Amino acid sequence: xxxxxxxxxxxxxxxxxxxxxxxxxxxxxxxxxxxxxxxxxxxxxxxxxxxxxxxxxxxxxxxxxxxxxxxxxxxxxxxxxxxxxxxxxxxxxxxxxxxxxxxxxxxxxxxxxxxxxxxxxxxxxxxxxxxxxxxxxxxxxxxxxxxxxxxxxxxxxxxxxxxxxxxxxxxxxxxxxxxxxxxxxxxxxxxxxxxxxxxxxxxxxxxxxxxxxxxxxxxxxxxxxxx
Length: 227
What we know:
Helices cover 14% and strands 19% of the residues. It has 227 residues and is of the alpha+beta class. The chain has one domain (32-223). A three-stranded antiparallel sheet has the order 1-2-3, with helices on one face. A three-stranded antiparallel sheet has the order 6-11-9, with helices on one face. It has a three-stranded antiparallel sheet with strand order 8-7-10, with no helix packed on it. The radius of gyration is 16 Å and the shape is globular.
């Protein structure tokens, strides 16, 4: 994964290409970044952001949220490999309790998540490969195709299994190899569906789902501020 950069379109995104056959029904094992839980009980922790974590994140002084207003969240999740893993997120301090509760609901239902780790600066600058599936929260970047800050830049948004729940607008599909998952009638593990467990869990925290938008349709995206 991530080994084959795509040629860029004039808008800076990668070329949209058919989904490789091996990813049409994506079910890859999780590569553990943090030690997995010792048991199967859901565990979570909300803490101040350690300096080492902040340094490997996309946060910088120009971001629209201070580092003091972010929290380092670690929590249990189920992988597509039917095993428990430990994920990490950077989240706005006001949003952290709701995020922990929402993922607790998903854990109870064994909703599969491929990976959950903090986005690094290198990932923002890397050529597009179109195959990413990292569930993440804080990323200091603008809204796609715009100059104003994304809700992610405030730690007020979460993207869940992006490959399984792609963003679409006109002819753009992100990730660029995820076109097979634009067909929402073919429900596969890891997909976010209207009225499904992920939408219900985040709605209980007062968050909106980008999959209900008209344009763009951002199926991976949950937001606390509507953006």
